[in-house]
Amino acid sequence: xxxxxxxxxxxxxxxxxxxxxxxxxxxxxxxxxxxxxxxxxxxxxxxxxxxxxxxxxxxxxxxxxxxxxxxxxxxxxxxxxxxxxxxxxxxxxxxxxxxxxxxxxxxxxxxxxxxxxxxxxxxxxxxxxxxxxxxxxxxxxxxxxxxxxxxxxxxxxxxxxxxxxxx
Length: 167
Ligand code: SME
Prior knowledge:
alpha+beta; 4 helices; 6 strands; Beta-Lactamase; 6-stranded antiparallel beta sheet; globular
């Protein structure tokens, strides 16, 4: 296993993802523990991009209400965050429900956005699938408006494939 993360020498977003993804693949391929892998992935994304908040919400059985499942906070880097998110709630709950990537250039324009921090200004959420169903989402928040684009969506989608392969 790699002892430390090699960072891209330039600020270029594409180069950063190109440097990061093979390392994440190497880091996770020999490890079957999903939480351990997600924890290192959150740390690697934080180290590479210094995102305001980056982490995972996992689909789990809901023991408290009638709703069958909900998202529960998993490994992350950044300020403390909401612990549980319902199906179809917020950006994360919508990504889970619709099974697709959601890019939010301005969180104030997303109806039902869940503000874990008022410093969060833009956001991207991507789902990962197991047996044809969403089993977790990756949530990345920025303290700058309009911080995520097609480059992020495309490379983070590759990351979700790595997570699916390792799960
Ligand atoms: N903003 C997210 C909630 C999670 S936190 O931002 C970490 C949402 O609307 O689903």
